[in-house]
Specification:
alpha/beta, seven-stranded mixed beta sheet, five-stranded parallel beta sheet, 15 helices, binds flavin-adenine dinucleotide
């Protein structure tokens, strides 16, 4: 039986372990922390449970594919609900809009609340679906580097539709083709942040994102987001995968240009026929492969945004809020200029509040709520995070108190903070980026590191920092790419 080692038990690492076990490998996963999940973990504080990272669950069929592969019913091990309403949006001038899962209703509501032409809203969603359905099969499910993909019907079906895609211009320009109200444009601009990009730089193709949420659906696991990696790690264990927690990897051991194992922090050497790194590709090269010339071109692409998160235990409930809530900044463009150009936080931030206890009662004591309060933040450079945190916290509390017309500060009974430096430290994510590279140019989608090493035999890469990109479903799909590369190389 061939032996495979996976470095890291993030979503991509666990999904790879499952796929490799189905290919007949004996798989060992070495994870530096004491639980699975990477960015998608959880913690408890004074009776409140918090999902630490991701909050929105999309494309559940990607996860189901892993259960199907193992011949198991996902519903027996992992349950989730479709969210309806999806998200409540608050604008500074007092306008509120609640998005819903029924597309027809969503179109009518948007036309009415934002005074847009209903047909244009409908056209927008139709085109969003078209872009998604054209690009997903060739880009999200298949490694572009495998030449035999270029001969498939799926590939050519996508290629013949390319001329009908918005291949030029950025998302802002694209949105202005459909909408006249700045608030509608701000609403759809926000989807650029779903992969940590700027709506003022990301390509027009990013119009595909709203289809994922409104055409396919927004979901919430019945026991919280952490249950995604937890349920997957149990599925992996049932298929013979062994997890070694609290065991960091110091080095990938090579024999000439071929992988032969790993060296752990405790200096033990573990032999392996192949190694898949779920560590950020930047750290994989710089820390685990010190003798290998790193592909600087791929590693030095602009990184996605990071985040500053306040986890607040609230001692009361807030009826005016939903599971997902957005409080928009007045000047969105300046906020993103601060993030991507000045590498700092604007004073008026767009604030996202996620409250799982509205759906999962056990996540907070009775009559209380668990608030995950997040703002987009720049990647780590030379900021003083302690002072930025203080400033941001003051601005966020006063914005929420003003917009909700109620006191907030006095209801916060416990607090924890995760800043970009913490994200970098805890998950080894380069500069604390949430999604690997940013998609701030028309070429970014093609400038992610591949899932296989060109120089070192039997070395593979999985997770948000490599192809096809960041986010829970894409990290899972990158494992599918690794599998296809392994099959092609056998
Ligand atoms: C605050 C926040 C909000 C987010 N919101 C969303 C959202 O709403 N929806 C969504 O889809 N996505 C969201 N994301 C992104 C999503 O969480 C990630 O894209 C995805 O979880 C990344 O998975 P991954 O496979 O790349 O592994 P990672 O989560 O990056 O995990 C890598 C693992 O490798 C381990 N590791 C690293 N180096 C070593 C080593 N040397 N030895 C051993 N182990 C090592 C780490 O400890 C970690 O467990 C969010 C992320 C954050 C942080």
């Amino acid at each position: 039986m061939k032996k495979a080692v996976v470095i890291g038990a993030g979503i991509g690492g666990i999904a790879t372990a499952i796929r490799l076990s189905r290919l007949g490998f004996k798989v060992h996963v070495y994870e530096q922390s004491y639980m699975p999940g990477g960015k998608c973990t959880q913690f408890e504080m004074e009776g409140y449970r918090f999902d630490k990272g991701p909050s929105l669950f999309t494309l559940p069929e990607v996860m189901k594919e892993l259960f199907d592969l193992c011949g198991e019913e996902m519903s027996a091990h992992f349950e989730y609900d479709e969210l309806d309403p999806i998200c409540k949006y608050f604008y500074e001038d007092g306008l509120e809009f609640t998005s819903c899962s029924n597309l027809d209703e969503q179109v009518k509501n948007m036309a009415q609340v934002f005074q847009e032409d209903e047909n244009r809203v409908r056209d927008f969603f139709r085109d969003s679906k078209f872009i998604y359905e054209t690009t997903a099969p060739i880009f999200m499910h298949r490694p572009l580097q495998l030449k035999h993909q270029w001969r498939t019907k799926t590939f050519w079906n996508g290629i013949v539709r390319l001329p009908f895609l918005p291949l030029r211009g950025n998302l802002q320009r694209q949105l202005k083709r459909y909408f006249k109200n700045e608030k509608t444009i701000q609403y759809f601009s926000r989807y650029a942040t779903y992969n940590g990009s700027s709506p003022y730089a990301t390509p027009a193709m990013m119009q595909l994102m709203p289809h994922v949420e409104h055409g396919i659906g927004a979901f919430i696991p019945k026991r919280g987001m952490f249950f995604i990696p937890y349920a997957l790690s149990k599925l992996a264990e049932r298929n013979g995968v062994e997890f070694h927690y609290g065991m960091g990897v110091r080095e990938i051991v090579l024999d000439k240009q071929k992988v032969c194992g790993i060296r752990l922090w405790n200096q033990n050497i573990i032999s392996a026929d192949l190694v898949v790194s779920n560590m950020d590709v930047h750290g994989t090269y710089k820390q685990l492969l010190p003798s290998v010339k790193a592909p600087e071109k791929w590693l030095n692409q602009e990184k996605s945004s990071s985040a500053l998160i306040f986890y607040w235990g609230m001692n009361r409930t807030f009826d005016q809020l939903n599971v997902h809530n957005i409080f928009f900044a007045r000047d969105y463009e300046s906020e993103f200029k601060c993030l991507f150009e000045d590498k700092t936080l604007h004073e008026d931030l767009t604030v996202y509040i996620h409250i799982t206890s509205k759906h999962i009662a056990a996540d907070a004591p009775q009559g209380c709520e668990n608030w995950f309060v997040m703002v987009n933040a720049p990647c780590v450079s030379e900021q003083n995070w302690k002072s930025l945190e203080l400033l941001a916290r003051r601005n966020i509390v006063s914005k929420l108190e003003r917009m909700l017309c109620t006191s907030i500060e006095e209801h916060i009974v416990c607090e924890r903070i995760w800043n970009p430096e913490g994200i970098q430290q805890d998950t080894s994510s380069h500069l604390g980026a949430l999604y690997g590279n940013a998609s701030n140019s028309a070429y970014s989608a093609f400038q992610r590191h591949a899932n296989v090493s060109q120089e070192i035999k039997n070395l593979y890469f999985v997770g948000g920092s490599v192809h096809p990109g960041g986010g829970v479903p894409l990290a899972m799909l990158s494992a599918k790419m690794v599998e296809q590369h392994i099959l092609a190389h056998e």
